[in-house]
Design brief:
heterotrimer; A alpha/beta (287); B mainly alpha (254); C mainly alpha (435); A: 287 residues; alpha/beta; Rossmann fold; 6-stranded mixed β-sheet; 10 strands; 23% strand; B: 254 residues; 7 helices; DUF3333 (chain C); Phosphate_PstA (chain C); transmembrane (chain C); phosphate transmembrane transporter activity (chain C)
């Protein structure tokens, strides 16, 4: 995995130097990157891992009550970009982010801004379901507890029930809240992780290939859930399944070798993409 | 011809998939439709010969060969279902499949028009014995002219389908005014009060044939519209033709 | 190939070629398995031999020979003024009582040399035994009691059969006369072997029958406690910092390499270091559990750090991401989620490090733990020795009785080591989680 990633990076560099020679540093994004009602606004974001550039001059808005999907081949930087949005990249050595990313007008890369509460505001759901090896209750309770969101046990119980209900998991687990979260099925675990994320009342939810480890039925349940969550949250989702992007999102962004190639209404991207690279990718002509 | 001069399209819009089987499936589908198209052109030509020169055998041949086109159109439908079900085409592939589906319909109906002309050719001479040149030279040349326009358009539209060529499709649109002009003139000629030598039912036959030939030209236009839909991603039906041609030409030369 | 293919015959299928070489491949596999199995059996048999030898030599040390004598607690000797003053009683001449008892038992012995031989049958520790009895119960004064008295080590060896009675007198340590007395006493049922509590309650001694491992055990105990207190927090802290917080650069690489090298440094070097730094520079009292613990901490730290880092590495990063993702700070992530999952591995590493420290001798020789200390240490700064050093010392002693004591001490040490390793295994089993 790491070798392919490295090769990918090497190839990125090669392309970049070729582009530099031709006087072009990064590709222009096709389509409208702005959202009518933006919650997160990213402008000219560059991400470097050491000396290699993983993201090149990406601008993108994530609107209120909107699902933005990010698609692209492996190593195109879509996950990297997603992880910029809640400063998850801070944990990686040698990762440098330039440009501006704002959440409700506040620069999240501001020196004075603490990434810890930011991650509660911008929650994240990961590729592999990763519940804590604790009880279902504790899994959901952990966030509100450390953030001090509740004053009493009753309040905490309410939050947990509410979160599990919103994640569509309540009826399945209400009788076994004290059982370990790792004992649930993959799809249930992923919904538990979503419940855990929404328990701290985030404004934006980032999802990094949330269904890649799930079977089609569990995937469909998660997709339905994403559609329901849209009424309360802004959602950015990275997915390898183009059909999934087409199904769940309102807007789609196509990344290619660190460039944001095209952004547009999902309907438009999947029926009539403007850029050749986008079209080649979504019609299966890549490579 | 493409919206992206920086990345010129390769020879074929429908090709280049990582899964090469997908390419082959789309090619099979298109080949069926091209085959239909070529057969329809032959049918039309044979029917018009039957109509003008009174060769009955050509008319019967047209009637005989018609079912083959219908079967091909069924094959095309089946292939379309299969591609949609198995490949879930998106973007250009989706447009190709949708357009080919519509094109198949137009080609099939153009084939029906050939049959209609052939029937009219037979009906025209049904009660007349041994009339070699029922149609005088003037009328013959008018019919030939109309047929030439329509067939030219149809042939060109089928060629356009073969490579989803915007240029050729625009050519089809450009022929439209002449087709309508010729057709209107022929209709006017046939509706003249001083038209001699034809019984009323024969005039109806001739009018019907003329209308059918014109319709073939219309089908060609429809096919050309679908070609532009595939290549440009825009549905240009019911748009003003002149403006459309101008925009697309300007874009192509840019 | 048993068949030569005819010209124009269809080309050989791959499966035929595979089948042809299959037999050879299986034979090779069997050979390898056999070699591996014999290596394991050889190793195990050596371990078994070692254990059998030690147990054979050492098991008799757990019993001790006692001689029953009627002792008259003579009031004139013990408490001449009749005050029952404990101080007077403590200083009284109990040896006199034993000698009187022996003389009464064997009235025919009058010669000075013979008398000395007779007296030497009873251990020099026996008077202490009598004194303790009297101090515990002063009413004994003036009465005559049958008392089981501790036999001298030579008599002990004779009774246990380690000294061959068939040898000529000049080739064994026990005189014919003494053998005769022993046989007389045995016939009277006045010689018995009892469980050797002295071995577990006494410190070391020049007299084998009085020597015990209690001092060394306590020394080892204090040392290990201190080592654990020093090494575990430092080791785990260092591991967490290096693994989770330290930037990955040339300096941390260097530190990592050095920690790995440190684990391979001969342990005596740590002893020299302790002598030079802790004792000479910082003035830590030598020969104490404190200085031993400092040295052993240095020695076990690399083991603990390496094991703890491995344990931290094995915690899936998804857990860290999950915790960070709901707004936990990096330290909360570590303490609430990573550490509990890594703890079994860390404890296992620590216990193995402790076991290593328990069995270590060389560095402790350098810091004075080799001193002959009879007292049972009472604290972290009282002079003491440790079990392996005690074994080393006893193994050096000429007396026959120390041989079996050495083996017995080794058995105790091994028992503790096995116990610790077992704990490590159980901990790993108990807390191993799957995710």
């Amino acid at each position: 995995m790491s070798t392919t990633l490295d090769e990918m990076t090497v190839r990125t560099r090669a392309t970049t130097s070729a582009e530099l020679a031709s006087g072009r540093e990064s590709r222009e994004t096709v389509g409208d990157v702005t959202s009518a009602n933006p919650r997160m606004v990213c402008r000219h974001v560059d991400v470097f891992y050491g000396s290699t550039q993983a993201i090149k001059d990406v601008s993108l808005d994530i609107g209120k009550n909107e699902v933005v999907s990010m698609i692209g081949p492996s190593g195109c930087g879509k996950s990297t970009f997603l992880r910029c949005l809640n400063r998850m990249n801070d944990t990686i050595d040698g990762c440098r982010v330039t440009g501006s990313i704002t959440l409700d007008g506040l620069d999240i890369y501001d020196k004075g801004l603490d990434p810890v509460p930011l991650r509660a505001q911008v929650g994240m759901v990961f590729q592999k379901p990763n519940p804590f090896p604790k009880s279902i209750y504790e899994n959901v309770a952990y966030g509100p507890r450390i953030l001090g969101l509740t004053n009493s046990k009753a309040e905490l119980d309410d939050i947990i029930e509410g979160s599990l209900r919103k994640a569509g998991l309540w009826n399945e687990v209400k009788d076994r809240l004290d059982k370990p979260g790792t004992g649930l099925s993959g799809g249930q675990q992923q919904r538990l992780c979503i419940a855990r994320t929404i328990a701290v009342s985030p404004e934006v939810i980032l999802m990094d290939e949330p269904c890649s480890a799930l079977d089609p039925i569990a995937t469909a349940i998660i997709e339905e859930l994403i559609d329901e969550l849209r009424s309360n949250y802004s959602i950015a989702i990275v997915t390898h399944s183009m059909q999934q992007a087409a199904r769940v999102s309102q807007r789609t962004a196509y990344f290619h070798l660190g460039d944001l190639i095209e952004v547009g209404e999902t309907n438009q991207i999947f029926t009539n993409p403007k850029h050749k690279l986008t079209e080649d990718y979504i019609t299966g002509r890549f490579g | 011809m493409s919206s992206l001069p920086a990345s010129p399209r390769q020879d074929d819009l429908a090709a280049g998939h990582t899964v090469r089987r997908y390419d082959r499936e789309l090619k099979t589908l298109r080949d069926i439709i091209l085959d239909m198209g070529h057969r329809v052109i032959e049918q039309v030509q044979a029917a018009v010969v039957a109509l003008i020169d009174g060769e009955e055998i050509q008319a019967y041949r047209v009637l005989d060969r018609e079912p083959r086109i219908d079967y091909l159109s069924l094959d095309a439908d089946e292939e379309i279902f299969r591609v949609i079900a198995r490949r879930q085409p998106t973007a250009v592939d989706l447009r190709i499949v949708l357009a080919l589906s519509r094109i198949a319909g137009d080609v099939e109906r153009a084939g029906d028009k050939a049959v209609r002309i052939a029937r009219q050719a037979l009906a025209l001479r049904d009660q007349v014995s041994a009339v070699d040149n029922l149609l005088d030279d003037d009328l013959q040349s008018r019919f030939r002219q109309l047929d030439h326009r329509a067939c030219c358009m149809f042939e060109r539209s089928i060629e356009a389908v073969a490579s989803f060529d915007v240029e050729r499709a625009l050519g089809v649109f450009e022929d439209e005014p002449e087709l309508f002009g010729t057709s209107d003139a022929l209709r006017a000629y046939l509706s003249r009060e001083d038209l001699k030598g034809f019984k009323p039912y024969q005039v109806v036959c001739l009018l019907t044939s003329a209308h059918a030939i014109e319709r073939i030209g219309n089908h060609a236009s429809n096919i050309a519209e679908q070609v532009i839909y595939v290549a440009e991603g825009k549905d240009i039906r019911y748009r003003n033709r002149e403006i459309l041609i101008e925009t697309l030409r300007r874009k192509a030369s840019a | 190939m048993n068949k030569t293919p005819a010209a124009g015959a269809p080309p050989k299928r791959a499966i035929d070629i595979v089948n042809a070489s299959l037999k050879r491949r299986y034979a090779r596999e069997r050979r390898f398995r056999f070699i591996g199995l014999s290596a394991v059996i050889l190793g195990l048999s050596f371990v078994g031999l070692l254990f059998a030898d030690i147990i054979a030599k050492g098991h008799s040390a757990f019993v001790q020979t006692y001689i029953q004598l009627p002792v008259h607690f003579e009031a004139a000797v013990l408490d001449p003024d009749g005050s029952r003053n404990p101080e007077v009683l403590a200083r009284a001449n109990y040896q006199q009582l034993i000698r009187d008892a022996l003389r009464t038992e064997f009235p025919g012995v009058t010669d000075r040399r013979e008398t000395r031989t007779l007296y030497s049958m009873i251990s020099v520790g026996a008077p202490t035994q009598l004194r303790d009895r009297v101090l515990a119960n002063p009413d004994l004064i003036g009465t005559t009691q049958d008392v089981w008295l501790l036999a001298d080590d030579d008599i002990d060896m004779l009774v246990k059969g380690h000294i061959d009675r068939g040898l000529p007198e000049n080739q064994r340590r026990v005189k014919d006369q003494a053998v005769g007395w022993v046989e007389q006493l045995e016939a009277q049922g006045r010689i018995a072997k009892r469980f050797n509590t002295i071995f577990f309650t006494n410190g070391t001694s020049r007299e084998p029958e009085l020597a015990g491992i209690a001092g060394a055990l306590m020394g080892s105990f204090y040392t290990l406690i201190l080592t654990l207190l020093f090494a575990f927090p430092i080791g785990v802290g260092a591991a967490i910092y290096l693994e989770e917080f330290a930037p990955k650069n040339r300096w941390t690489d260097l530190i990592e390499v050095n920690i790995n090298n440190l684990a391979a440094v001969p342990s005596i070097v740590f002893g020299l270091l302790g002598l030079a730094v802790f004792i000479s520079v910082f003035g830590v009292p030598r020969s104490t559990p404190l200085v031993a613990a400092l040295v052993l901490t240095l020695m076990t730290l690399p083991t603990i750090i390496i094991a703890s880092r491995a344990a931290l590495k094995s915690v899936p990063p998804s857990i860290r991401e999950a915790a960070l993702g709901v707004g936990a700070s990096p330290l909360q992530t570590q303490i609430h989620h990573v550490l509990p999952l890594a703890m079994p591995g860390m404890l296992t590493g620590t216990i193995i490090g402790m076991a290593q420290a328990l069995g270590e001798t060389a560095p402790l020789l350098m810091i004075g733990m080799i001193a002959f200390i009879v007292e049972i240490p009472s604290g972290f700064t009282s002079p003491s020795t440790v079990l392996p050093v005690q074994i080393f010392l006893w193994a050096d002693s000429p007396e026959r009785a120390f041989v079996e004591r050495t083996s017995a001490a080794i058995m105790v040490l091994l028992a503790f080591l096995i116990l610790m390793n077992l704990t490590a295994v159980l901990l790993r089993r108990r807390f191993e989680r799957r995710w």
